[in-house]
Amino acid sequence: MTAPDRTAVDRPARAARRERTTRETAISVTLDVDGPRGEVEVSTGLPFFDHMLDQIGRHGGFDLTVDARGDLEVDGHHTVEDVGILLGETFREALGDKAGVRRFASGLYPLDEALVEVALDLSGRPYFVWDVPFGEVLPLGDPPFNPEMAEHFWQSFATSAGITLHVNLRAGRNTHHKIEAAFKGVSRCLRDAVRVEGGGVPSTKGTL
After folding, report:
1. Is the pLDDT of residue 5 over 70?
2. Which of 13, 64, 81, 119 has the fewest CB atoms lying closer than 10 Å?
3. 6 pLDDT exceeds 70?
4. Domain spanning 15-193: which superfamily?
């Protein structure tokens, strides 16, 4: 007899909480990928980065809490990188065996003049491609967020989460718009890819 598909009633909760402490940062992340309340609370000491992390929760449909304390007197690099690492690890743990997920997602995501193309695969194989060029790199927010760290954040996330992620700029001039379109696009694709449509693991190998 074929086992029935797992429904939302009998499926284990897809949520996780992790902490990471180094001599450079102290971070905690709580994530529920099925986020019934859509609650997001983020605090990293970098207001622009907080705004981008908020996009992940809002457009990903996740309940998300991020609390990070880092050596911002050096710069924001360690904080952004370590949040990406820990969020990726938490995301991977929350998904569990990925039974029934759609796995793939892609799309074009605009923000005013900016247009970003995103494609991802919950493959279990970390691979990252980022082609979002900037002109003159001007810090955003106060304390400042270096726009180049957007790439590093998603690279850290994709590697720790074990996903294949491509992000490409199709059009755009404004740095803020480019980065925000990328965050919204990846978040929306994550939302689509984690959606449960069946009962088995969507892989010929039987594991992701």
Report:
1. no
2. 13
3. no
4. Imidazole glycerol phosphate dehydratase; domain 1 (3.30.230.40)
